[in-house]
Design a protein that fits this description.
two-stranded antiparallel ribbon; unspecific monooxygenase; 53% helix; transmembrane helix; metal-binding; globular; 11 strands; Cyt_P450; alpha+beta
């Protein structure tokens, strides 16, 4: 407190003398005092938080972190500061958990305390704390619990959803046949399949693969993932004031999201006009019925605004994460034709060329199961996970972390753990096979995160990846347009998500 009084006194003197002093000198004095105040406040707070690199005033540790590959920078810092450390993105402290033990201890051992959603200003501006992914507190609990119940009742993880995926897999095969074995970029074809599955769940509708409105939505989602992983958006998340005063790709991102939410809002209006409370058709109907049941509850979280955001979360996450994984997976398979050959041998032996693959086949196809897991582990789709936040003041490993502090859990450090997965940067399905060639589970497989904030669509995504990839490899030979040795699988951006490079391949019918 003596420091603050002294600082206030110095500021007062500086302003009193400003009339007889050069304005530049006044500015320097004021900025110096503000920096001293920041350093004092930072050292006071830092005394409670885990250790970490010394932050600069205003900028924090941003200049010490490669915002194009945050995960790699955090791994380097972990070598100096251990598995639990603090970094500052701007003036905001963020506690980083690095390595399997720390991540597991937080997300599963203290899952309630670490179940908050950390701030991501670029997303917060759009979501306004609504929906499933970026909500918090009671709103999140109610919305997530309701969404999971509806999805399970509609068959997620059961035969009814499996039937939809199998039907969509056949549509995907037909679309791939129409490429006539010519070189093609598979981005949007692969995006159509998972998008149609989630659309059938949300609003009981699927689209033709040539539908321009449908392709436009996919284009916006695909573009959004690249923008979200860009350097500029990482900077905006650290310095949110920039979004108000500077042009940039964050405005494009906002427009993309607004357009998509507008489209979904129209779907909701159509459902309101044709709703039969005794015969719910899909997720939107179930939510509208819940809204009607809770209409007299002023504290209800079941509102039109929350419905729009919940549907947007399911639509975007249910489409883009799976389609990106499929796209990255095929790139890895043409890079490693020996892996593809072993998969197809297993398909011939277990399924044959005519029967549609089903989920029961997975237990008899350990190599294919291992490859699907390997793709997800290798590509490390969301390297630092979505940010968590502690729900109240907690003690974690002898550190005191204040309520609301943002938590980054390095999924890279878990998925690429060298002890669990020797040579983690090598695409080796053997990481998930035992000595007898049977599938081997790993607790380190956290591609969908862990704990209370684990991906609500995990079981759906697992089914889609297995069935879509198996069906493609059952019906086609993948032919690269370049020598496999020359294929670069390095992500083009690695911020929010790992985005694979653009490529072409030929789908040659078997």
């Amino acid at each position: 407190m003596l420091f603050i009084k002294s600082l206030d006194s110095k500021l007062s003197i500086a302003f009193m003398q400003s009339t007889s002093m050069d304005p530049f000198i006044v500015l320097v004095i004021c900025l110096s005092c503000l920096i001293l105040l920041f350093l004092w406040k930072q050292s006071y707070v830092k005394g409670k938080l885990p250790p970490g690199p010394t932050p600069l005033p205003i900028f924090g540790n941003v200049l010490q972190i490669n915002t194009k590959d945050i995960s790699k920078s955090l791994s380097k810092l972990a070598k100096d500061y251990g598995p639990v450390f603090t970094v500052y993105f701007g003036m905001k402290p963020t506690v980083v958990l690095h390595g399997y033990e720390a991540v597991k201890e937080a997300l599963t051992g203290q899952n309630e305390e670490f179940s908050g959603r950390g701030s991501m200003p670029v997303f917060d501006k759009v979501s306004q704390g609504l929906g499933i992914v970026f909500s918090n507190g009671e709103r999140w609990k109610q919305t997530q619990r309701f969404s999971l119940t509806v999805l399970r009742n509609m068959g997620m993880g059961k035969n009814t959803i499996e039937d939809r995926i199998q039907e969509e897999a056949l549509c995907l095969v037909e679309a791939l046949r129409k490429t006539n074995a010519s070189p093609c970029n598979p981005t949007f074809i692969l995006g159509c399949a998972p998008c149609n599955v989630i659309c059938s769940i949300i609003f009981q509708n699927r689209f033709d693969y040539t539908d321009q409105n449908f392709l436009n939505l996919l284009k916006l989602l695909n573009e959004a993932v690249s923008i979200m992983s860009s350097l500029w958006v990482q900077i905006c998340n650290a310095f949110p004031a920039l979004m108000e005063y500077f042009p940039g790709s964050h405005n494009k991102l906002s427009k993309n999201f607004t357009y998509t939410k507008s489209y979904l809002s129209e779907k909701i209006k159509e459902h309101q006009e044709s709703l039969d409370i005794n015969n719910p058709r899909d997720f939107i109907d179930c939510f509208l019925i819940k809204m009607e049941q809770d209409k007299h509850n002023l504290q209800s979280e079941f509102t039109t605004e929350n419905l729009i955001n919940a549907v947007f979360d399911l639509f975007s996450a249910g489409t883009e994460t799976t389609s990106t994984t499929l796209r990255y997976g095929l790139l890895l398979l043409i890079k490693h034709p020996e892996v593809t050959a072993k998969i197809q041998e297993e398909i011939d032996r277990v399924i044959g060329r005519h029967r549609s693959p089903c989920m029961q086949d997975r237990s008899h196809m350990p190599y294919m199961d291992a490859v699907v897991h390997k793709i997800q582990r290798y590509i490390d789709l969301i390297p630092t996970n979505l940010p968590h936040a502690v729900t109240h003041d907690i003690k974690f490993r002898n550190y005191l972390i204040p309520k609301g502090t943002t938590i980054l859990t390095s999924l890279t450090s878990v998925l690429h753990d060298e002890k669990e997965f020797p040579n983690p940067k090598v695409f080796d399905p053997g990481h998930f096979l035992d000595e007898s060639g049977n599938f081997k589970k790993s607790d380190y497989f956290m591609a969908f995160s862990a704990g209370k904030r684990i991906c609500v669509g995990e079981s759906l995504a697992r089914m889609e990846l297995f069935l879509f990839l198996t069906t493609i490899l059952q019906k086609f030979t993948l032919k690269s347009v370049v020598d496999p040795k020359d294929i670069d699988t390095t992500p083009v951006v690695n911020g929010f998500a790992s985005v694979p490079p653009s490529y072409q391949l030929c789908f040659v019918p078997v």
